[in-house]
Amino acid sequence: MEQGVFPEQLRVARALHGRSRDRLAGAAGVSPSAVANVEMGKPHRASSLAAIRSALEDAGVEFTNGDQPRARLKTA
User: Fold this and answer.
1) What is this structure's pTM?
2) How wide is the angle at C-alpha 13 spanned by C-alphas 39 and 48, nearest 5°?
């Protein structure tokens, strides 16, 4: 996936932020099925992944990579 972002990270990020798939889809400008496909690792458009990631990052989520990829809320 793009820049080391994994489906699990996206699911965790959405849960951390308390967003439904519908709400995240609206914020990202994609369909709820696009969010589901990305989260399940199914075929999707690179632009959908980029939009979803951007919407989560704009909402305060930080994706970390390395030995254990994670997602967390940014701290002030």
Assistant:
1) 0.81
2) 45
Q: Chunk the chain into consecutive blocks of 10 residues (it has 76) and report each block's average pLDDT, rounded to whole numbers.
A: 69 86 95 94 88 90 68 62
- Evaluate whether 49 touches 21 at the Cβ level (below 8 Å): no
Q: What residues contact residue 6 under an 8 Å CB cut-off, 6+ apart?
A: 69
β-sheet bridge partners, residue 36 = none
What structural domains does the chain harbor?
2-68 (1.10.260.40)
> Within the chain, what is the greatest distance between any pair of CA atoms?
35
Q: What is the pLDDT at residue 74?
A: 65
Angle at 47 between CA 12 and CA 43, to 5 degrees: 70
The one-letter amino acid at 73: L
Question: Please, where are the H alpha helices in the chain?
Answer: 7-17, 21-28, 32-39, 46-58
